[in-house]
Known about the structure:
Two copies of one chain form a homodimer.
Chain A: E1 11-17, H1 28-38, E2 54-58, H2 70-78, E3 84-89, H3 94-107, E4 113-121, H4 128-136, H5 141-146, H6 150-165, H7 169-183, H8 197-202, E5 205-207, E6 210-211, E7 220-228, E8 239-248, H9 263-276, E9 285-287, H10 293-302, H11 311-317, H12 333-337, H13 341-356, E10 370-377, E11 382-389
Parallel strand pairs in A: 2-3, 2-4, 9-10
Antiparallel strand pairs in A: 1-7, 1-8, 4-7, 5-6, 8-11, 10-11
Amino acid sequence: MAETGQAQSVGVVGAYSTKYESRSQKEAHEMIQEVATGVFKTVDKGMSPEEVDLIIVSNYSDSFGNILHTAPLVAHYIGNMSATGFRVENACASGTTAVYLAWRMLSSGLFRNALIVGFEKMSSVGSSAKANEILMRTSSPEEYRVGAPFMTLYALMAQEYMSRYGATEEDLALVAVKNHENATRNPLAQLQKKITVEDVLKSPYISKPLKLFDASPLSDGAAALLLSSEPRKYTDTPVYIRGVGIAHDHPGVYQRADIAAIDAARRAAEAAYRMSGVSAKDVSLFEVHDAFTIAEIILYEMLGLAPRGEGYKLIREGVTSFTGSHPVNPSGGLKAKGHPIGATGVGMVAEVFWQLRGEAGARQVSGAEVGVVENHGGTGATSVVLVFSR
Amino acid sequence: MAETGQAQSVGVVGAYSTKYESRSQKEAHEMIQEVATGVFKTVDKGMSPEEVDLIIVSNYSDSFGNILHTAPLVAHYIGNMSATGFRVENACASGTTAVYLAWRMLSSGLFRNALIVGFEKMSSVGSSAKANEILMRTSSPEEYRVGAPFMTLYALMAQEYMSRYGATEEDLALVAVKNHENATRNPLAQLQKKITVEDVLKSPYISKPLKLFDASPLSDGAAALLLSSEPRKYTDTPVYIRGVGIAHDHPGVYQRADIAAIDAARRAAEAAYRMSGVSAKDVSLFEVHDAFTIAEIILYEMLGLAPRGEGYKLIREGVTSFTGSHPVNPSGGLKAKGHPIGATGVGMVAEVFWQLRGEAGARQVSGAEVGVVENHGGTGATSVVLVFSR
């Protein structure tokens, strides 16, 4: 898990994202084409597709979108058949796994410029029951066999966390309220709509204590990044990858040492902070994996923003709100920006790129200097943490 | 595409494969567990799971087997939660893409020991019509939309090849006959049954000129490898990766410069030969991607065994038979050994490992010193070529 040295030179030089939507008019391959070609237009000094020598595609399931073997498709769309490409999958952490691998290979000199494309067209399956079955494929085989949906697994985590530390359903609701409000400032967000604590508390229980409004939506969307080991060739304002961490945990919630933690995120953050020399207090903004509200609260602790058992106090006190001292998910997060799985981690990095370049418009965090992304798969069997700065 | 330098030190030190079957009694996760743990027992001097720092899983589609996020599952099964893992997909070339990436990262010193697990449980979908739709997801979006099955796309290639160069349906049949005979010597093969040219010619046309017996079967199976950058620590007889090449082509057959070629294989082979200093005449045995008989004949030419347009003469003359001067697919190939997609490339490398160590039993190629693997995705939009020797 631990990563050392050599991270200084890799920078993000371009980023592009579709709006995330409940139902995109575009087919999966059209979304891929849009972002793979569109991202080149975002590079300040220009980059030619021929300069890309590495293509990594992030996609969760071919059962969403009915498409596979997408790396050569990207190569075809950008008109460069000499790059090396492949798709990577680590459940909901596929996008940041792609960024992690690109960083690994660029910082070691194996490749020079990487194009990363993430996408998911979840509406293609037509029913949320079917979507749910596909999502459950990322759980442990035992959880899949008993038919435990994600919401139920996160509910187990929430129940244990709340009873142990005294957090309430209102605390969870506050996360949803904050992220929905943030999304009203983000034109790329799926749910650009304010909600109240009452709205959340009145929404139906799906798996107690989690309610409908505690969950992120099903989404269609795609995002792309260009990374370079010579970033200043392409822009005077690259956003550097300063630290990376990737860690795993047992696939089943019930197999873990502490079911009220996301320990892989703690270990990934520790590695990324160590590499970057940054600690949580230095971070201007976080984009974290709030697939369910309880996850964001637990992540406050895993990422070092709060001591163990006190994460929920941050949401009560407004510390992580848009105008707080440590904004979390200024984009709206998975909860309100949306969660097109293969695109999610790629889009998180795009958001930090824009924030650190002062290009985030109405949702710009003032004085943003250091950004952190946490993106995990399933209930936390994989977590990737990335630290960025200008 | 081109790879240079640094390849000397990475070696295969362990290999394990299930028998390939039409319908495995094991579920996908049970196959994964079997090969991920079984491969450690094949390491001569032993390797502890804790020594693995990289896990790469190869799997084609989660629509076969209903399982995702398999890298942490492998970590869980071997009892090592500190390795870095992810799944890779490049259609039917997923397995060798995993080997390529492991080689890249081990030879650069980023990791030391890699566990590669490939699997596919194609019988899980229950019908060959559904399996066919899933296979078609690897074609271009246009080919998918018109509903062109793989067999039809390869039939286009075969039709053009045959009319241009004078190959016949009997020549294609000879490939099937050879590979079925080879499979009778391989206890891991799915179709351990001799067939005659007449059997092939009498089998029904699926897409003229290709008949049922020109195609590889649907298969269940899994395979695993252990690669090390310090191979002699683990065995006195490692099999070294001497050359690698990966290349892409346009996704659609109709988009390619020559539809009777698999040009990505030619370019990948060129790179792998250049890196290894080996040419086709030096190769003791080939394992190549004979998903359809025509592919093997075209590959003779792409891999430099025959001049362009003369590949079919090799099968007529017995050059590539088990006792010929350049045996191709002594394992039985995809055609008769079977083709559990995510396992296929991993299993090909396992076969070469056994052959070069003299451990291939009744199918041992005598005096095997250099082995080459060619594994491609779809109709050739990705090809990986690997050169091995002791």
